Amino acid sequence: MVSAPERPLPPLPPAAPAAVVAIVCGLPGSGKSTLCASAPAAMAEATATARAGPGCGVVTHHVCLDALEREARGGGGGGSPPFDREAWRESRGAALERVDGLLRTVAAAVGAGVAGDEVEGGAQPVPVPVLVLVDDTMHLRSMRHAYWRLARDRGAGFVVVHVDASPDACWARNAARDASTRVPEDAFLRVRAAFEAPGSEPWESGDALVRVRDGDLAAVWPQLGRAMARPPPAPPEPAARALERRAEGAAANASSAAHAVDALARRLVGAAVAAAPANLRHDLAAELNALRKDALAAVRRGARADEALAKLRARSHAHL
Predict the structure, then answer these.
(1) Degrees, nearest 5: CA angle 306-312-315
(2) d(Cα 184, Cα 193) in Å, to the nearest integer?
């Protein structure tokens, strides 16, 4: 983590969130941790330009799932047990909880007038941007979406950084690691086969997606700095409003269906009455219009159009 500058900072742009979750995803050995390690100094400069002018600092937090996984299997250095699937699963829950805790802390600090590390030098502490880097393969879209939902619910920004390196280069780098950090070959191949590259969903595309290709780490920082200035995802719709909206939609659909049935029923009545002998038309029109009203009532109660119109169709066709 990097502390903010000592002198007062300009306020954040109104739309810019105080915290941003950045998912750093890619194959094992793609360079994700290397990128995260260079983030503090690079982001301090990038966000100064993109968000608030010279002097704007940034507080970075690196949540590394590899490190959490090693902790879960009781190791942290040389000699620790090899990769363990259960520890891997445990580390995913721990990472989500850690990010949630950081976002809650930032939200509480914003309420008190400061975000991240307290910045002294003025009469009042001033918020600074907080960047939470989540370092993992995140090869499934659902994994990344869990963090998008968390960011949305906590009022934080969200961006995906895809470290898009050659699979062959990733394989070679992973193979060169020691046993405590190396991803097993079968696990690597599974991740590679299952990898769902970001970009197909609105919440992780466009300005919310930063791609790093061919190890060009320097290119990521200006893009990430701009991404941090984006508004956070829109908050979830209140449950009561969602129910209300669904009811409105159902009512609109029912109204539309009733209108269509009424139009068809009137055509059926008109054709049958026109084809009937003159002396029968008055009574037939009364009978068929009664069936038309029954059909409309049935549709409004939820019946399918063909079922609602069955009797009217049969009676009208008998006179055609």
Answers:
(1) 130
(2) 14
Cβ-contact 311, 288 below 8 angstroms:
no
Ordered domains of the chain (ranges, CATH) = 19-227 (3.40.50.300), 240-317 (no CATH)
Q: Residue written as tokens 């026109």?
A: 274
Whole-prediction pTM: 0.65
Which has the closest alpha carbon to 127: 222, 225, 58, 62? Answer: 58
The three-state secondary structure class of 139 is: coil
> Which residues does 77 contact at the CB level (< 8 Å), separation at least 6?
180
CA neighbours closer than 13 Å in the CB half-sphere of residue 223: 17
Task: Write phi, then psi, for 239 (nearest 5 degrees).
Answer: -60, -40
Which tokens hold the place of 90?
Answer: 């445990």
Here the tokens at position 11 are 């306020």
Q: How far apart are CA 224 and CA 209, in angstroms?
A: 9
Q: What pLDDT digit, counting tens, does each position of 124-172 carry?
A: 444 567 889 999 999 999 999 999 999 999 999 999 999 999 999 999 9
State the CB neighbour count (10 A cutoff) for residue 77: 9
pLDDT in tens, 240-290: 666 666 766 666 676 787 788 888 889 888 888 888 888 888 888 898 889
**Distance from C-alpha of 158 to C-alpha of 228, rounded to nearest angstrom:** 8
